[in-house]
Amino acid sequence: MLPAILVIEDETTLAKNIKTYLGRDGFDVHVASKGKDGLAEFERFKPDIVLLDFNLPDINGLEVLAQLRKLDVRIKVIMMTGESDVQVAVSAMKAGAYDYLSKPLVLKELRMLLEKAAGQQ
User: 19: Cβ–Cβ under 8 A, 6 or more apart, which residues?
Assistant: First the structure.
Protein backbone atom coordinates (compact mmCIF):
# COMPACT_ATOMS: atom_id res chain seq x y z
CA MET A 1 0.00 0.00 0.00
CA LEU A 2 1.32 3.43 -0.93
CA PRO A 3 1.85 5.97 1.84
CA ALA A 4 -0.42 8.98 2.34
CA ILE A 5 1.52 12.19 1.74
CA LEU A 6 1.00 15.72 3.05
CA VAL A 7 2.81 18.44 1.09
CA ILE A 8 3.32 21.73 2.98
CA GLU A 9 4.63 24.04 0.26
CA ASP A 10 3.84 27.68 -0.53
CA GLU A 11 4.94 27.49 -4.19
CA THR A 12 1.57 26.58 -5.69
CA THR A 13 2.94 25.27 -8.98
CA LEU A 14 5.44 22.98 -7.28
CA ALA A 15 2.82 21.66 -4.83
CA LYS A 16 0.40 21.00 -7.70
CA ASN A 17 3.11 19.23 -9.74
CA ILE A 18 4.02 16.98 -6.80
CA LYS A 19 0.36 16.15 -6.17
CA THR A 20 -0.31 15.38 -9.84
CA TYR A 21 2.87 13.33 -10.29
CA LEU A 22 2.37 11.21 -7.19
CA GLY A 23 -1.41 11.02 -7.65
CA ARG A 24 -0.96 9.37 -11.07
CA ASP A 25 0.78 6.51 -9.31
CA GLY A 26 -1.91 6.12 -6.68
CA PHE A 27 -0.49 8.11 -3.78
CA ASP A 28 -3.08 9.92 -1.65
CA VAL A 29 -1.69 13.46 -1.55
CA HIS A 30 -3.02 16.48 0.34
CA VAL A 31 -1.55 19.97 0.06
CA ALA A 32 -1.30 22.98 2.38
CA SER A 33 0.37 26.28 1.47
CA LYS A 34 1.14 27.56 4.99
CA GLY A 35 2.67 26.00 8.07
CA LYS A 36 -0.35 26.48 10.31
CA ASP A 37 -2.69 25.12 7.62
CA GLY A 38 -0.34 22.16 7.23
CA LEU A 39 -0.45 21.38 10.94
CA ALA A 40 -4.26 21.47 10.90
CA GLU A 41 -4.34 19.24 7.81
CA PHE A 42 -1.88 16.86 9.46
CA GLU A 43 -4.29 16.31 12.35
CA ARG A 44 -7.25 15.76 9.97
CA PHE A 45 -5.51 13.66 7.34
CA LYS A 46 -3.00 11.63 9.43
CA PRO A 47 -0.44 11.15 6.61
CA ASP A 48 2.40 8.67 6.66
CA ILE A 49 4.96 11.13 5.29
CA VAL A 50 5.17 14.94 5.18
CA LEU A 51 7.03 16.90 2.49
CA LEU A 52 7.81 20.20 4.18
CA ASP A 53 9.17 23.40 2.70
CA PHE A 54 11.78 25.15 4.82
CA ASN A 55 10.62 28.68 3.91
CA LEU A 56 6.92 29.17 4.54
CA PRO A 57 5.05 32.48 4.62
CA ASP A 58 3.72 32.19 8.17
CA ILE A 59 6.12 30.07 10.24
CA ASN A 60 9.54 28.56 9.63
CA GLY A 61 9.67 24.97 8.40
CA LEU A 62 11.83 23.95 11.36
CA GLU A 63 9.09 25.19 13.71
CA VAL A 64 6.52 23.17 11.78
CA LEU A 65 8.83 20.13 11.96
CA ALA A 66 9.10 20.49 15.75
CA GLN A 67 5.32 20.70 16.10
CA LEU A 68 4.78 17.70 13.81
CA ARG A 69 7.22 15.66 15.91
CA LYS A 70 5.24 16.62 19.04
CA LEU A 71 2.02 15.42 17.39
CA ASP A 72 3.59 12.15 16.19
CA VAL A 73 7.18 11.30 17.01
CA ARG A 74 7.17 8.55 14.34
CA ILE A 75 6.19 10.82 11.41
CA LYS A 76 8.69 10.88 8.57
CA VAL A 77 9.30 14.44 7.40
CA ILE A 78 11.28 15.26 4.27
CA MET A 79 12.43 18.89 4.23
CA MET A 80 12.59 20.76 0.92
CA THR A 81 14.31 24.06 0.28
CA GLY A 82 15.80 26.26 -2.38
CA GLU A 83 18.47 27.35 0.11
CA SER A 84 21.91 26.10 -0.81
CA ASP A 85 23.15 26.48 2.77
CA VAL A 86 24.32 23.13 4.16
CA GLN A 87 23.48 24.37 7.65
CA VAL A 88 19.77 24.24 6.75
CA ALA A 89 20.09 20.53 5.99
CA VAL A 90 22.05 19.88 9.16
CA SER A 91 19.48 21.77 11.27
CA ALA A 92 16.61 19.84 9.68
CA MET A 93 18.24 16.47 10.29
CA LYS A 94 19.11 17.36 13.89
CA ALA A 95 15.48 18.44 14.42
CA GLY A 96 14.28 15.00 13.36
CA ALA A 97 13.74 15.20 9.60
CA TYR A 98 13.94 11.85 7.82
CA ASP A 99 15.75 13.38 4.87
CA TYR A 100 16.32 16.59 2.94
CA LEU A 101 15.83 17.59 -0.71
CA SER A 102 17.11 20.66 -2.53
CA LYS A 103 14.99 22.53 -5.04
CA PRO A 104 14.46 22.34 -7.88
CA LEU A 105 13.14 18.87 -7.12
CA VAL A 106 13.59 15.93 -9.44
CA LEU A 107 10.22 14.20 -9.10
CA LYS A 108 11.60 10.76 -9.89
CA GLU A 109 14.14 11.13 -7.04
CA LEU A 110 11.36 12.33 -4.74
CA ARG A 111 9.32 9.24 -5.51
CA MET A 112 12.28 6.93 -4.80
CA LEU A 113 12.87 8.68 -1.47
CA LEU A 114 9.17 8.33 -0.57
CA GLU A 115 9.27 4.63 -1.38
CA LYS A 116 12.39 4.23 0.77
CA ALA A 117 10.75 6.10 3.67
CA ALA A 118 7.55 4.07 3.33
CA GLY A 119 9.53 0.83 3.40
CA GLN A 120 11.02 1.74 6.77
CA GLN A 121 7.71 2.22 8.59
Answer: 7, 29, 31
